[in-house]
Amino acid sequence: MLAYLPNEISPWQLIKSSSTLEGEILFTNMPRVITDKEVLNKTGSVWADLKFGYDNKGIPIIQGSIRANVYFTCQRCLQPMDTEISSKIALCLVYEDTNIDQYDKLLYEPIACNAIDNLFLWDLIEDELLLSFPIAPKHMQQSNCLSEKISSIRNLNNT
Ligand SMILES: [Zn+2]
Prior knowledge:
alpha+beta
């Protein structure tokens, strides 16, 4: 099933009903992605699946993953390249005045959210996506990288 994810959600309701949200968010709904000079495919989208519920300690959590294909400029050969980005999501909801366990902080990234608050999903997923961008994108397989092709041609010519 492919659907677009809504921006505004009521996380506590989704947690109480153990709901799942699955779908796409367009890059055009993510102002920081769309204005990022590194991102070449402005028409892309990110796919997310999110499960809401409580863990075995009763902590209210949102868990899942995101996936996107982002075109960056390869830092070695300066050609555009398709990079598959995937990242796990593990968040826990806390009231603004709650102090959560150090141990739980290792498992989940806490987000402040009071009982009546809504969460802005596009913004949240945008944060996760930006955090998973490579620092210096380069063709993973050297054979795909133009700079490698050029240097191997040079090597051939030299022999
Ligand atoms: Zn390259």
